[in-house]
Design a protein that fits this description.
Length: 222
């Protein structure tokens, strides 16, 4: 492999390449940790299914896998509705507040995220569209320096609607995703329990092996 092109690169280009590959590695690590967190969370959420069907299983009210799945689906739906109605209400309120604002101001192009009269007024905003902040390396356009800061957090009265709508949409959306994930985890758990609770496994059974009876032990009183 010809590595002469590396010698021709400037020190700044080399630093950009190193930072680029480090960013890729960090992204893969974060995705791995995020995936592991989701799996662990779903296992924990699935345990709620045990609480929902515990009594009918222990008291042998349900005796077949199909009955268990049907009962678990019904209880699971009720649990989901209890968990999901609040985030759904937050999302609806957030959307309605933006619609009412747009109708009152007759401005249907209003962006509730912008830095002038939206939620962006509360955030640090950098100009990532600034061409001077980028460079070309091997035909790729990479960031060579941090873009200039174009907004610092400040309060705007005309952005009050976005101060309510955006948090409501964000919190409601995350909350709903967690509730939906819990519903999925409980569904998977229910189907797993339906297979294992009524499973008749003969893997370790051998009819030629005599059944050993326990011999009662006697104790001598000194």
């Amino acid at each position: 492999m010809n590595l002469n092109f590396l010698i021709k690169l400037s020190e700044n280009d080399k630093r950009i390449i190193i930072a680029f590959f480090l960013a890729i590695i960090i992204v893969f690590v974060l995705f791995g940790l995020f995936g592991s967190l989701i799996i662990r969370t779903m296992k924990w959420q699935g345990k709620k299914c045990d609480e929902l069907i515990n009594e009918v299983v222990i008291n042998k009210i349900i005796t077949t896998p199909s009955q268990l799945r049907k009962y678990a689906r019904k209880k699971n739906r009720r649990c989901f509705l209890k968990q999901a109605w609040i985030p759904v209400a937050l999302i609806v309120l957030g959307v309605l507040s933006i619609i009412i604002h747009n109708a009152a101001t007759n401005n249907w192009s209003y962006n509730p995220f912008n830095k002038d009269d939206g939620f962006g007024t509360l955030l640090f905003v950098w100009d990532f569209g600034n061409a001077d902040s980028y460079t070309k390396v091997f035909g790729l356009t990479l960031l060579k320096e941090w873009p200039p800061l174009v907004n610092t957090p400040h309060f705007e009265v005309k952005a009050l609607v976005s101060y309510f709508a955006i948090p409501a949409l964000f919190i409601g959306g995350i909350w709903y995703i967690v509730a939906a994930q819990s519903y999925l985890a409980r569904t998977i758990r229910a189907y797993k329990l339906a297979r294992t609770i009524f499973d008749k496994n003969l893997d370790n059974y051998n009819q030629n092996t005599p059944i050993q009876q326990e011999v009662p032990t006697t104790t001598t009183i000194q």
